[in-house]
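hey
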């Protein structure tokens, strides 16, 4: 199972971008899905998360500007980013908690996407 993130790019302050993250593979279900980001010289931080039933939570720094959503039928996670600020410049990573059921019982694991760069110019 792999996660592939896309949608990053260069945008002016006040602009918008939409990130996507697709999970590919077979025989799995996905529980929580999250977006994280890491700016140069800083620690990775959780930006937003969404449960399988759509319950979302956000870092204070992005509340009211970012919207996380998912399409379970397409195994896809989204992050709509509006009113972007220069301080939002980071590499954005998607992450998901997977489950695979078998006769031996459930197997759970966490995977990360490769990251997509968002650059916001002032």
């Amino acid at each position: 199972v792999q996660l592939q993130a896309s949608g990053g790019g260069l945008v002016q302050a006040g602009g918008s971008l939409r990130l996507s993250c697709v999970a590919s593979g077979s025989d799995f279900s996905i529980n929580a899905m999250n977006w994280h980001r890491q700016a140069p010289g800083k620690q990775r931080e959780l930006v937003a998360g969404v449960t399988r039933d759509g319950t979302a939570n956000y870092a204070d720094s992005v509340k009211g500007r970012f919207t996380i959503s998912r399409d379970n039928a397409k195994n896809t996670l989204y992050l709509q980013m509006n009113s972007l600020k220069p301080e939002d410049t980071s590499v954005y990573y998607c992450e998901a908690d997977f489950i695979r059921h078998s006769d031996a019982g459930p197997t759970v694991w966490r995977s990360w996407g490769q990251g997509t760069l968002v650059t916001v110019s002032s």
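The mean pLDDT is 96. The radius of gyration is 15 Å.
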